[in-house]
Amino acid sequence: MQVPAQFEYQRATGVDHAVALLSRHGAEARVVAGGHSLIPMMKLRLAQPEVLVDINGLHELTGIRVESSRENGRWLRIGAMTRHAELLESELAGEHFEVLHEAERVIADPLVRNRGTVGGSVCQADPSEDLSAVFTALRAIAVIRGGDGDRTVPMREFFVGPYQTAVGPAEVLVELRVPVRPGCGSAHLKVDRRAGDWAVASVACTVWLDGDDVAEVGIGLTAVGAPNFSAPEAEDHLRGRPATSEAIVEAGRIAAAHCRPVADQRGPADYKLHLASELTVRALHRAVDRARG
Ligand SMILES: Cc1cc2nc3c(=O)[nH]c(=O)nc-3n(C[C@H](O)[C@H](O)[C@H](O)COP(=O)(O)OP(=O)(O)OC[C@H]3O[C@@H](n4cnc5c(N)ncnc54)[C@H](O)[C@@H]3O)c2cc1C
């Protein structure tokens, strides 16, 4: 039986308390959210934190809501401790961004979805993780709390490498904010070997149309070696053009051309490249159809 190395357990009573505990214990401390990635890593001794700071039960980190203000516009705000199951059940989230429900339906199984969190998923930054690509495609912004207060980081700067994010050792991800703008459609497609498995490849797309033209677009790719889950060159190709089939097929080709998948038990590299292109094309078509209403 695999058991973790010995560690001290601290239960945070608020976000600032969590930040203070992390600051006090330095690089040896880790936040635990749903524990579905961290605890298995501790059992395998791939992670050996000396202190676990438990952020379960912090109401400041929960909730899904839309907020509007004249200065800042409209945002869907999703607390970091939102469980996968809560996001899947949120009518508000699905009404604004179909991609959130489509992705959550195929992430793991109900046991994992009941416990695993949105914040834990993106902070884990596992290259096979679905939500990281989704929030990249949604052009979300991460709100991160540290000793000096809150700072915001666009998702494209949030992921700094496999299993590495912009969240510092004494910081806590508070929420993800997604801009709510008119003319938007989104979609997520995943190929997996069996229901509930990690992706062989998955793609999330969001399109904002202005008439026939693509005003803005987000493309996120999982498990295919897309740098930081994103495909900026393919987005650049689409932005400002009419959303034609030709433009979408070319965007799929460009997205795959920038991926560097590795062969593993889920499939050979050339199959993953094929999926990167094909899923991008199909998800873009679906997102455009939805944006057209
Ligand atoms: C059997 C199984 C199948 C799965 N299948 C899939 C799948 O198909 N697709 C998919 O996308 N995912 C899958 N997952 C992963 C799942 O989505 C987990 O929920 C996710 O990896 C981690 O979320 P968590 O809340 O459990 O995080 P934890 O394990 O608690 O934490 C993960 C990391 O994030 C850090 N962290 C957590 N929250 C914060 C925060 N608010 N601020 C700062 N740091 C934080 C922790 O310190 C740790 O380093 C699967 C997991 C399992 C166990």
Automatic annotation (TrEMBL):
Keywords: FAD, Flavoprotein, Oxidoreductase. It is an enzyme of class 1 (oxidoreductase). The keyword 4Fe-4S does not apply. The keyword Iron-sulfur does not apply. One of its GO terms (molecular function) is anaerobic carbon-monoxide dehydrogenase activity. Residues 2-183 form the FAD-binding PCMH-type domain. Its EC number is 1.2.7.4. It comes from the Bacteria. InterPro entries: CO_DH_flav_C, CO_DH_flav_C_dom_sf, Diverse_Substr_Oxidored, FAD-bd_PCMH, FAD-bd_PCMH-like_sf, FAD-bd_PCMH_sub1, FAD-bd_PCMH_sub2, Mopterin_DH_FAD-bd. This is Carbon-monoxide dehydrogenase medium subunit. It comes from Pseudonocardia parietis.
